[in-house]
Design goal:
The complex is a heterodimer of chains A (279) and B (316).
Chain A: H1 17-33, E1 35-36, H2 38-55, E2 70-73, H3 79-89, H4 129-142, E3 149-154, H5 161-172, E4 178-184, E5 187-188, E6 191-192, H6 193-196, H7 202-208, E7 212-217, H8 221-229, E8 239-244, E9 263-264, H9 268-277
Helix pairs in contact in A: 1-2, 1-3, 2-3, 2-8, 4-5
Chain B: H1 2-15, E1 19-23, H2 32-37, E2 42-44, H3 49-61, E3 65-71, H4 72-78, H5 80-89, E4 95-99, H6 117-122, E5 128-130, H7 135-145, E6 152-155, E7 177-180, E8 188-192, H8 196-209, E9 215-218, E10 221-223, H9 227-236, E11 239-247, H10 252-263, E12 270-276, H11 287-293, H12 298-308
Parallel strand pairs in B: 1-2, 1-3, 3-4, 4-6, 5-6, 8-9, 8-11, 11-12
Antiparallel strand pairs in B: 5-10, 7-9
The chains are: A alpha/beta (279), B alpha/beta (316).
Chain lengths: 279, 316
């Protein structure tokens, strides 16, 4: 049985300048939008950073390029993290982050495809992304494209039964070009996952559903890069990567605190403290 | 109608490489020829309707046209959120081929009776809702479905339904078809959908014997609704009666009423809706038994029309 890593990531390296910069952008969106799922965003940053910096094939000026890899953020509430990466990669200007959740913005509190370049599927209601990813992976197989599909899910999200329907289906079809990534920050909205709906033994669950599964420190850029580059872990089955993360990572007073799952109208002093923590 | 619809999926798949079939856990041997000929586009994915709808949407996002098939209540109740978000919000061409619309599964009880499907499917933005009256009309609809942009809820009837549609009437999604035209200057107009059109035509024959000549207007498409046809027929009508094999709340009759209120306001004709009540069905038997119980048999429809028209002298 895989034991979840402890409260502090043993050996987890400190955040480097790029991780701090991306987090400052996230705080900028949070500040200008006066709201956001900050804890869920901060746990995702390194996962998405490595995917967009080193793994995914995409063209920011041609978001619908057929040969691209598909990246679905199934935990749509962590959207600020993907907005930051898409802006950083040039899908839209950095300044667009300042419009987060504004009336006429393209950037809502959950991501919408068709509105935002680079967003593959509209998510927010949880438990939808893996089935959509299965459909996209099957489509790629029929069309004989070598696109890969990555679906990032939250730990709370995988309480949904639909996730396991999709997992069974992916296992049955041996979708080796499909990778499920779990942002396992151990805290869902109501409290610790262990208390609300314990997911353990999580690696064994994914393996039982036909996936090659592995776990990794979700804030260790080097380790993430190493694992993601090995995908597919096995040539005849989908991959599941369980990323042990810290909710709110990088903001010491928010880390591990369920109260920081979502915040609105943070006072300027708190925003200033957040920026200070990310210098 | 169901067999015709599925046969047509295979026919369309031979014509168009975008067509895919996805079943849940259906009869053994279903679309076997398609499975043999194009195994990469034939799927049977088990009793997991949420996943079936989600993966169909994922395929549609990549340019395919998936015809997904299971029992109507499972699509509409079990996977409503996937239908709403994955299919409708993304506005992708997923076709939900839904077995047993209305009271088809009478002996199986309320878990299998799709009574509110029309109401909840038509409430979804971007959704198209279709209920053909017979297998021949189903063929014409299926041909038309290939080029339709968004998701479609396809309500299937029992099968073996009498053929009442005529090729000369043509078929266009969203266009009602006049099945019987009254010579009366201010007639009673029955507006119907699905196989209720058959019962309405039989009711028209019964009424004709009583000297009452009525019009019957068939709506194979409930959404988008042919507002122009409703208004045109209602302007001169003295009574509009809607007939549907589904609950009144939010159903076909409710949709017609909305159009009349919005378009004709105080000038709208008298209306009567024949539909299922706000309750789960307590009986079994066969579909025609339930038609009788709920006033949807030809005789009961004719009787309701007479009562609504004030012709109590003719009520048997």
């Amino acid at each position: 049985m895989s034991a979840p890593l402890g409260r502090l990531q043993l050996g987890s390296p400190p955040l480097d300048e790029r991780s701090l910069y991306l987090r400052r952008l996230a705080v900028r969106a949070l500040d200008k939008g006066e709201r956001g799922h900050i804890g869920s965003t901060m746990s995702l940053i390194e996962i998405l950073r490595v995917l967009y910096d080193d793994i995914l094939r995409f063209r920011p000026t041609e978001p619908a390029w057929p040969g691209r890899d598909r990246m679905i953020l199934s935990k749509g509430h962590g959207c600020i993290a993907i907005y930051v990466l898409l802006a950083d990669k040039g899908f839209f200007p950095i300044e667009t982050l300042d419009t987060f959740c504004h009336r006429d913005s393209i950037l809502g509190g959950h991501p919408e495809s068709g509105k935002i370049p680079g967003i593959e599927a509209s998510t927010g209601a949880l438990g939808h992304g893996l089935s959509i990813g299965v459909g996209m992976a099957l489509a790629a197989r029929i069309q004989r494209r070598d696109s890969r599909v990555f679906v990032v899910m939250g730990d709370g999200e995988i309480n949904e039964g639909s996730v396991w329907e999709a997992a069974m289906c992916a296992g049955k079809h041996r979708l080796s070009h499909l990778t499920a990534i779990i942002d396992y920050n151990k805290i869902q909205s109501a409290g610790p996952t262990r208390e609300i709906q314990d997911l353990e033994p999580l690696m064994e669950k994914w393996r039982a559903f036909g996936f090659a599964a592995v776990e990794v420190d979700g804030h260790d850029v080097g380790e993430l890069r190493k694992i993601f580059k090995r995908v597919p872990l096995e040539s005849d089955r989908p991959t599941a990567i369980i990323c042990h993360t810290v909710k709110g990572r990088g903001i010491p007073f928010a880390e591990h605190d369920p109260a920081w799952h979502h915040k609105a109208k943070l006072p300027p002093e708190t925003i200033a403290k957040m920026y200070a923590a990310l210098e | 109608m169901r067999k015709t619809c599925l046969d047509w999926v295979y026919k369309l798949a031979k014509q168009d490489p975008r067509v895919i079939f996805i079943g849940s856990d259906l009869s053994p041997g279903l679309l076997d020829e398609m499975k043999q000929e194009m195994p990469e586009r034939w799927f049977m994915e088990g009793i997991a309707e949420q996943n079936v709808v989600g993966m169909a949407a994922g395929m549609a996002m990549e340019g395919f046209i998936p015809y997904a098939n299971t029992i109507a209540t499972f699509f509409t109740r079990r996977s409503y959120e996937q239908v709403a978000i994955d299919c409708c919000l993304h506005n992708v061409p997923v076709r939900l081929v839904s077995n047993g619309g209305g009271l088809v599964y009478a002996p199986l009880g309320p878990t299998h009776l799709a009574i509110e499907d029309i109401a909840i499917m038509r409430a979804l933005p971007n959704m198209t809702v279709v209920a053909c009256c017979d297998a021949e009309e189903m063929k014409r609809f299926m041909d038309a479905s290939l080029a339709w942009k968004g998701p479609i809820y396809i309500r299937l009837a029992k099968g073996g339904d009498p053929i009442i549609s005529r090729p000369e009437n043509g078929f266009e999604i969203g266009k009602a078809i006049s099945m019987r035209k009254s010579a009366d200057a201010s007639p009673v107009v029955l507006m119907t959908t699905g196989v209720m059109t058959t019962n309405a035509l039989k009711a028209a024959d019964i009424l004709h014997a009583d000297g009452i000549d009525i019009s019957v207007l068939h709506f194979h498409t409930i959404k988008p609704l042919d507002k122009a046809a409703i208004v045109e027929h209602a302007r001169s009508a003295r009574l509009v009666v809607t007939v549907e094999e589904g609950i009144a709340i939010g159903g076909f009759g409710s949709a017609v009423t909305d159009v009349l209120v919005d378009e004709l306001g105080p000038g709208m004709p008298q209306m009567k809706r024949i539909a299922l009540p706000d309750s789960f069905c307590k009986n079994y038997g066969v579909q025609s038994d339930l038609f009788e119980i709920y006033g949807l048999s030809p005789k009961k429809i004719a009787r309701t029309v007479l009562e609504a028209a004030g012709r109590h002298d003719l009520v048997a």
